[in-house]
Structure prediction request, 245 residues.
Amino acid sequence: VCTYNILIDRLCKVEKLNEAIEVFDSMVDRGIEPELHTYNSLLAGLYKANRSSDAIKLFKSLRHGNLQPDVVTYNVMISGYFKHGEIEKATELLREMNSEGLKPDKFTYTTLIHFVSQARDLKAAQEVFEAIDKSGPSPDILQCITLMDCLIKNGKLEEARKLFDDIPGKGLVPDVVTYNTMLDVLCKNKKLSEAKEWLIGMEAKGCSPNAFSFNTVILGLLCGNEVEDAVRLLQTMLERDFSPN
RNA sequence: CCAUUUGACCA
Prediction:
């Protein structure tokens, strides 16, 4: 069974979905019970291939079987619905998961914030965030980032900065992505020199920049006509085996 | 010490 799970998962990742399904079927034919992981992998694969109807079918067959969907299963389904704009279905699933006594976890929350931020519903995003802040376990760093991103996209750059300053106060440590998000803020704000300082500063704090960091700053420099610096950064980037974009 | 599944940042 382990072998099958790995196989199916790998096939999904390589986007050889049909083969994954074949393997899945042959598993069933042999009387091997797929476990929840198997379903979850397959569901995620189906959504990546935009085959939501198949995913829904699979989800239903799972529930009619003797397996209980777990939080992961719901998360996959919910984000899948969101991606296809089926908001009502997604919220319906949320309710359902509550009634089954399953608690939304940080993945669920991040998905929620992400979605409302895409809908440019800043208020809703902040509400979700505050709800998490109060009720649940301390907000995940990803939730802060997602909210920051939402603020940026709505032009509230200063608030995004403020949120960043709050992060250490919540007992969270800014990670690479947090820095990347801030770099993005600074570039969009035309604070290029600050962005460059941050790029150096984050490294000094033991947080090595990744390809995203470089891409963000290089792009910012180019927009600000600081081509020379951009080129210099590009070279640094190549020295570190990052591929430019 | 290690099998597999879901969320975030540039483009």
